[in-house]
Amino acid sequence: MADYVQRVLDNVRAKNPNEPEFLQAVEEVVTSMAPLFAKESKYEENAILERIVIPERTIMFRVAWTDDKGKIQVNNGYRIQFNSAIGPYKGGIRLHPSVNLSILKFLGFEQIFKNSLTGLAIGGAKGGSDFDPKGKSDAEIMRFCQAFMTELVNHIGALIDVPAGDIGTGAREIGYLYGQYKRLTHKYEGVLTGKGLKWGGSLARTEATGFGNVYFADNMLKAVGNGLEGKTAAVSGSGNVAIYTVKKLYQLGAKPVTVSDSRGSIYQPNGINLEVLQQVKEQERASLTRYAELCKDATYIPVADYAAGEHPVWNFGTDLAFPSATQNEVSLADAKNLLSKGCVLVSEGANMPSTLDATRAFLDAGICYGPAKCANAGGVATSQLEMEQNAGMTSWTFDEVDNKLKGIMAGIFKAAHDTAEEFGQPGNYVMGGNIAGFRKVADSMIEQGVM
Q1: DSSP-derived pairing of the beta strands 57-66 and 72-83
Q2: pLDDT at position 172 over 70
Q3: Domains 2-187 and 208-366 share a fold
Q4: pLDDT bracket for residue 2 (50, 70, 90)
Q5: Alpha carbon separation from 152 to 62, 68, 128, 163, 310 (Å, rounded)
Q6: Which residues contact 378 (CB under 8 A, 6 or more apart)?
Q7: Does domain 2-187 have CATH number 3.40.50.10860?
Q8: Is the pLDDT score of 1 beyond 70?
Q9: Burial track 175-192 (b if 16+ CB lie within 10 A, e otherwise)
């Protein structure tokens, strides 16, 4: 059956030669599932891998908008509707200069299995644009979002495709996108998640990815007779995922000592000041240089001072690591730094933040390693809970949503844990999560026929 995996990988590489992120995601998923294909021939017989690595639909469009000086600007817009075997497409909209087909295809591919693991009826998708919100006025962002939605509106709907936020797409952007959707369709429905609380949003959605990541980490530690209490933690990033990872770590007795952004990193041995971090990032939308100004006991490390191929947040001898910024931020050198200094857990809040070499190093070391499609699924799970509330025209309390989130993350852990044990590799949540997520989607594809 290894021949089947290799044949599919060779074909994907030949057809997508300039898409490194997508190829990395496919290789990580497909190679980890070789034991499943050796056990069950139906997936090869029904060409499931050959089908699942190709999006059901790839939508590309021009986004033309006018800046504050009256000059016309043009960006690329995308929506990758990857797989709808178990529910309507679901996945975020990323706004960042790095956005391209490779990145969105990797994200959409990962989303298939992540969404499946939640146990909820949602398929996999991703979208976005190479538009950069940084440095833009609210009016410019509004005009861009309106232009983007004018093209996207023909391809989404509450039972078709429900986008959400992602890097660069927060509450402000979701508001502008939703307003334009409503203007064009005259429909007040849950077609976007991450909405404002006054108009259909869900309590705990902002916190969900970070909280869920820590809940998953807690489950991993408890499974080996350990816990979060008294541990130090390195966190990368300083957006929603990182901020609410920091908050939940404090709530469960751990001490986060690092955060980072695109310009530099903070190390604060006495613990990150959550109140200041939220002020700087959520209110002022400023760089972490501002955080360093306000917290005199914090050390600021600019990007220019980073060692080649290394990120300083992984170099301070912490017990736990929570990569929460972006893809491939944890190199093999970073993994070695973490492991050599006693790190016992890595739980991924970002999407595919570890390189393949780093992932292998964590697995070989036998530490608690929570891959992104398991550990950061709390965000999309709570997005689906927002969809459920919208469908019932109701609103749940914060505790109701948070308790459902805890249950979903415990369920994801159990699925990955039990599947890893089933295939003789206890504790391998990469394999366990991939197989558990894949089987539900693949079996549904088989039952729905060739399409």
Answers
A1: antiparallel
A2: yes
A3: yes
A4: confident
A5: 10, 23, 10, 10, 38
A6: 208, 209, 210, 211, 212, 213, 215, 216, 405, 408, 409
A7: yes
A8: no
A9: bbbbebbbeeeeeebbbb
Superfamily name and number for 208-366 = NAD(P)-binding Rossmann-like Domain (3.40.50.720)
Structure tokens at 112: 């298939």
CB atoms within 10 A of CB 86: 20
Three-state SS sequence of 290-356: HHHHHCCCCEEEEHHHCCCCCCHHHCCCCCEEECCCCCCCECHHHHHHHHHCCCCEEECCCCCCECH
Active-site positions read 126
Phi/psi of residue 298, each to 5°? -95, 140
Structure tokens at 447: 């039952």
CA dist., res. 105 & res. 102, Å (int): 5
The predicted model scores a pTM of 0.93
Residue 180 to residues 75, 150, 175, 185, 317, Cα–Cα distance (Å): 18, 7, 9, 9, 48
- Tokens 């939508």 -> residue: 59
Tokens of 297: 């006991």
Q: pLDDT tens digits for 278-295?
A: 999 999 999 999 999 999
Domain range summary for the chain, segments of one domain joined by + = 2-187, 208-366
